[in-house]
Amino acid sequence: MVLNGRRILSNVISSQDDLHRRFGGVVPEIASRRHLEMINPIIDEALARAGVALTELEAIGVSYGPGLVGSLLVGVSTAKALAYALDVPLMAVNHLEGHIYANFLTGVVIVFPLLCLVVSGGHTSLIYMQNHGELTVLGRTRDDAAGEVFDKVARALSLGFPGGPAIAKLAQGGDAVAFSFPRALMGEEWQMDFSFSGLKTAVLNSIRREKEQGRQVKLEDLCASFQAAVVDVLVEKTALAARRYAVRQLLLAGGVAANSELRRSMFCRMEEEGVEVIVPPPQLCTDNGAMIGAAAYFALRRGRLAEPTLNAVANLMIDGA
Ligand code: KG4
Ligand code: ZN
């Protein structure tokens, strides 16, 4: 629950990680069933923690895509029913835009135009944001998302799900130059797209090679070298875009923005470029309701109300492209 798009009154998160862990990834059917079970108790708890009555709500925001359609539908149907019953405006929020708006909950003054790097389990996108609701995608991943490769490498190493935090932890004690992994598209100055599938294959091949040669995989070194390859590409492409579009601020967003090496490296590099980096605290980087509330508030201010016929859109784009 969010006040004026900037203050969190409550942010109750029902994580399903434990449920999906033994499958090594999110199982769509299990995810939507769990959403259905949890949505009403979560709404009750959010109201209770905020000390707000249902009838005091002034608007309802909901993420309607991109994502798994079953899970999105649970949220969309509930939000529509609530907005109708309470007779308040309904706002439809793009999930990626939601990640970006987590930055508005940090208290830092945000000035447009700016650059956003959204790095999550499903997306890796560099976005130029001219104003609220005016977003242009400059580059995106051509294959795997950054978080997705963290998860896939972790799976190959039996590190559990989600893989990002486990790899980041092991990487702390490792040598980032022990393995030399590819940095795709990095030398191509005009290119703001990303590609991580080659890196994933290279890491998986290294794991196989070490095993074949009867060597123990040095987990720390492998994780540190892999993480460095992801971070290098993300930071370099962001620096390129920052220079080309002459922005003064960068908003980091999405689950992978919780990665401390990415944060450190991005702060360092952007300082050289004279760009201020804004990044939400880790618990606001991964999926949460407050970020959707913040985005909904700014949509409401622009009068962008959703139709009562709103539907979930699994492959929703951020810039209508
Ligand atoms: O944004 P998010 O919570 O969900 C999506 O919308 O996808 O992002 C989840 C992703 C997972 O792939 C997870 O492995 C990754 O974010 N992640 C991290 C870290 N924490 C979460 N990746 C790298 N380092 C982390 N510390
Ligand atoms: Zn997300």
Give the overall shape, derived from the CA principal axes. Answer: globular
Helix content: 40-55%
Name of the CATH architecture of the largest domain: 2-Layer Sandwich
Please give the alpha-carbon distance between the first and last residues: 31 Å
Oligomeric state of the chains present here: single chain
Mean pLDDT: 95
Q: How large, in whole angstroms, is the Cα Rg?
A: 20 Å
Query: So how many helices?
Result: 11
Contiguous uncertain segments of 5+ residues? none
Specify the structural class: alpha/beta
The hetero molecules present are: 5'-O-[(R)-(carboxyoxy)(hydroxy)phosphoryl]adenosine, zinc ion
CATH superfamily of the largest domain: ATPase, nucleotide binding domain
From the structure above, extract its key features.
Nucleotidyltransferase, domain 5; alpha/beta; 2 domains; single chain; about 325 residues; binds zinc ion; 11 helices; binds 5'-O-[(R)-(carboxyoxy)(hydroxy)phosphoryl]adenosine
Provide a descriptive summary of the structure in words.
The chain is an alpha/beta fold. It folds into 2 domains: 2-100 and 285-301, Nucleotidyltransferase, domain 5 (2-Layer Sandwich), CATH 3.30.420.40; 108-279, Nucleotidyltransferase, domain 5 (2-Layer Sandwich). Helix content is 46%, strand content 14%. It is built from 11 helices and 9 strands. The chain has helices at residues 17-21, 28-50, 69-86, 95-101, 146-156, 163-171, 197-212, 219-245, 260-273, 282-285, 289-301; strands spanning 2-3, 7-8, 60-65, 90-94, 114-119, 124-131, 134-140, 249-253, 276-278. The strands form 3 sheets. Strands 7-6-5-8-9 form a 5-stranded mixed sheet, with helices on both faces. Strands 1-2 form a two-stranded antiparallel sheet. The chain has a two-stranded parallel ribbon with strand order 3-4. Helix 4 crosses helix 11 (289-301). The two termini are 31 Å apart. The structure holds 5'-O-[(R)-(carboxyoxy)(hydroxy)phosphoryl]adenosine and zinc ion. The site of 5'-O-[(R)-(carboxyoxy)(hydroxy)phosphoryl]adenosine has 18 residues, from helix 5 and helix 6.
